[in-house]
Design a protein that fits this description.
The protein has 2 helices and 26 strands. It is mainly β. The chain has a domain at 274-338: Thrombin, subunit H (Beta Barrel). Strands 1-2-3-4 form a 4-stranded antiparallel beta sheet, with no helix packed on it. A 4-stranded antiparallel beta sheet has the order 5-6-7-8, with no helix packed on it. A 4-stranded antiparallel beta sheet has the order 12-13-14-15, with no helix packed on it. The protein is globular and about 50 Å long. The relative contact order is 0.11.
Length: 338
């Protein structure tokens, strides 16, 4: 198992056997095969619907986004949760129980989620219902991030250089583009303000495309470890963050990178940029780092939970939602004021 992949992104066996769950729900293999895009594989390789769990919001959540005043979070065992306030969460049915590690929306209705078993899901109604677009457990690959430019064109990236693109909203996914010739893990993808696409990966690599994702150049940063998150600050600068608190900044749209002293040796797994220019990074030991877009100072806060944090999202009231192996928590803004 690669130590450069955060524990919550690693492919691990589910705690429930597929056959046992099928029997528990009273579903036969034939019933699951109906309208199933994987009907040509053996029964044990077909997806099993995610179990509806009373404490789903207290289990591992890996990624989240805000869609038209609704928070959408994804995580362990295929859990997808919705909330209007970040306090009360509702789990929605999902046609596969693979751990989900990424979610992205093109608009307030069209969204996609992905995760282990090369799973890809789509919603057309803002996250209320989900359809299965891909499920390939035999590949032993995971989708680690998703980016959609509009309701038709999107990208999914993952471990061992896994890179997919679609021109039809995910009805078909293509693998004909090579981003990492060495098949290094690809962790995080964004579109910069100028239209360039950028990916952060392992071994200190950043990948950049200036033609919409058809061709990619490899940029080696001064660091040789893994980057788990790439962000663009409100002033246009790019940041990558990863192992042992390493953060690097680019002032020329990714062509060159300089180290930024984040003041920590804890690995950083997720982050966000707020509307007023704050950059928030989260990671090991419940460490939260906050800085302004000018990067003049870093404020650090350790959440009492002490668990590795996967993502952070600001709420409308000024407080923040953080996500970890125990679900979602609220952090008051007073703790994160630089």
């Amino acid at each position: 198992m690669n130590p450069n992949v955060p524990y919550f992104l690693r492919r691990v066996p589910g705690c429930l056997a597929a056959a046992g769950l099928v029997l528990g729900l009273g579903l036969s293999a034939n019933a699951l095969a109906q309208d199933d895009p994987t009907a040509d594989v053996t029964a044990e390789d077909r997806p099993v619907p995610a179990m509806m769990a009373r404490l789903a919001d207290r289990s591992l959540l890996t990624d989240a986004t805000l869609v038209n005043d609704t928070f959408v979070a994804v995580g362990q065992r295929g859990h997808i949760l919705l909330s209007s306030d970040g306090v009360e969460w509702e789990q929605v049915p999902v046609p596969a129980n693979s751990t989900l590690t990424a979610v992205d929306f093109a608009d307030d209705q069209n969204g996609w989620a992905g995760g282990h078993d090369a799973t890809l899901l789509r919603t057309r109604d803002g996250g209320r219902t989900w359809e299965l677009q891909q499920y390939e457990p035999l590949l032993d690959l995971s989708v680690l991030d998703i980016l959609f430019l509009d309701a038709e064109r999107g990208f999914a990236i993952g471990n061992f250089g896994y890179f997919l693109h679609t021109e039809d909203g995910g009805e078909t996914w293509q693998e004909d583009v090579v981003v990492s010739p060495e098949e290094h893990h690809l962790h995080s993808i964004i579109q910069a303000d100028n239209g360039d696409l950028l990916i952060a990966g392992e071994f200190g690599k950043v990948y950049r495309s200036t033609d919409g994702g058809y061709d990619w150049e490899v940029i080696q940063t001064p660091y040789a470890g893994s980057f788990f998150k790439i962000l663009q600050a409100s002033d246009g600068r790019l940041l990558v963050a990863g192992l042992r608190g390493n953060v690097f900044v680019s002032n020329d749209m990714g062509r060159s990178w300089e180290r930024f002293d984040a003041g920590t040796e804890f690995s950083l797994y997720g982050g966000n940029v707020t509307e007023d220019g704050e950059i928030i990074l989260v990671g090991e030991n419940a460490r939260i780092l906050v800085t302004r877009d000018n990067l003049s100072a870093v404020h650090q806060y350790n959440h009492p939970a002490g668990t590795p944090l996967t993502h952070v999202i600001p709420r409308a009231d000024g407080d923040y939602l953080i996500f970890d192996e125990e679900g979602v928590r609220t952090v008051e803004s007073r703790h994160l004021t630089p």
